[in-house]
């Protein structure tokens, strides 16, 4: 074995996903010496197997669904003809268009040393790979997460998809069984159904369990209405068969059911990637949820080490990973006091209708604050833009505690874009009145937020005390 090349760095990063790339770029642009390790694809899961390909597939599925929706507008169109190879080419095109931003060439241009090898700890401040040894002042672990494969008897004997393989499936899955009714499961269930697959979702609890319960039901019912079978409260107990002929036995509230399909997708959650890192040698404590960190994202057992993104155990979102890198740069280089929990976390499920959430759900707020929680909502069916476009399903709901906005949930067309207005208000400590005190262009869907906020103040603005006051004031010349 040849002797390892030794490097010294201000920052060493394991994992070139969203968090690792953002932190590496920030450090490099500040003139620091950065070594970046990546054993697979630059860009990580989001670019190659997650956010980008899934949203590209969803966009193709929306186009395929146009003929079915056109009827409500008085238009008849021929049924869509889906070319799976062409759809995959569209997905690859989206990845390839974004890839240069995350490429090795770009980061080397920023001044990073990029090592396309797996890295592991040798000691508390040293990483090694097949060709290099890096002694670093600071080390970031941003290895992300991967699909959890549940211990269902028989699963190991049949071919199955995860998010890493489904977007490049050689053959179109005409009868797709999906284990898991979370955001990934529901998004792909609707997408593949619209592309022509017969889809069955098996979910142990309720579908979209982390979303507002009432809003999740609206989305789930909409997906069901398009022909997707969603079995909530069902646990897969045995899987059998072979390529093109897979059976799932599931235990439900009314007994066992048998589900037949040509393919199966596993979407039962994700787990942090910690194997192969030799974290023990680095003095880095961890659990199956990831590296044990404080709210500063710094390892509790080795202060040289930071964990960003999914591996930090604070949530599994690309935008959260981006925020983590911002927290790291602010704290490590500018000595500012940002924390992982400094800002409310938004989340969007990209079904049609979309389900968006920021801050606390109504149930979470009531568990935390009790009966002092109030909500104020406004339905899409009273929004003129939604009416004009025949997209009236859904509502905006604000969650309020003692007059302060603590969360919001929106279900409906464009909910993921609309929720950002609430996120901006919450992140900057704006009062609830700020969501009423602006001119909303007409007609736009985002007006549902203003109307929901205005509805909260309606009793005080137009109630009996206000009428009495106005009556008195009217006597003044």
Automatic annotation (TrEMBL):
Q: Domain FAD/NAD(P)-binding: where?
A: 10-322
Q: What PROSITE patterns does the record tag this protein with?
A: PYRIDINE_REDOX_1
Q: Which cysteines are joined by disulfide bonds?
A: 46-51
Q: Where does FAD bind?
A: 55, 143-145, 310
Q: Which Gene3D superfamilies match?
A: 3.30.390.30, FAD/NAD(P)-binding domain (3.50.50.60)
Q: Which domain of life is it from?
A: Bacteria
Q: Which InterPro entries match?
A: FAD/NAD-bd_sf, FAD/NAD-binding_dom, FAD/NAD-linked_Rdtase_dimer_sf, Pyr_nuc-diS_OxRdtase, Pyr_nucl-diS_OxRdtase_dimer, Pyr_OxRdtase_I_AS
- Swiss-Prot/TrEMBL keywords: Disulfide bond, FAD, Flavoprotein, NAD, NADP, Nucleotide-binding, Oxidoreductase, Redox-active center
Q: Which residues hold NAD(+)?
A: 180-187, 203, 269
Q: How is the cofactor bound?
A: Binds 1 FAD per subunit.
Residues crossing the lipid bilayer are none
- MF GO annotations: flavin adenine dinucleotide binding; NAD(P)H dehydrogenase (quinone) activity; oxidoreductase activity, acting on a sulfur group of donors, NAD(P) as acceptor
Cofactor dependence is on:
FAD
Q: Which residues form the Pyridine nucleotide-disulphide oxidoreductase dimerisation domain?
A: 346-452
Known PANTHER family for this protein? MERCURIC REDUCTASE (PTHR43014), PYRIDINE NUCLEOTIDE-DISULFIDE OXIDOREDUCTASE RCLA-RELATED (PTHR43014:SF4)
The text of the family note is:
Belongs to the class-I pyridine nucleotide-disulfide oxidoreductase family.
- Name of the protein: Pyridine nucleotide-disulfide oxidoreductase
Recorded source organism is Hyphomonas hirschiana VP5
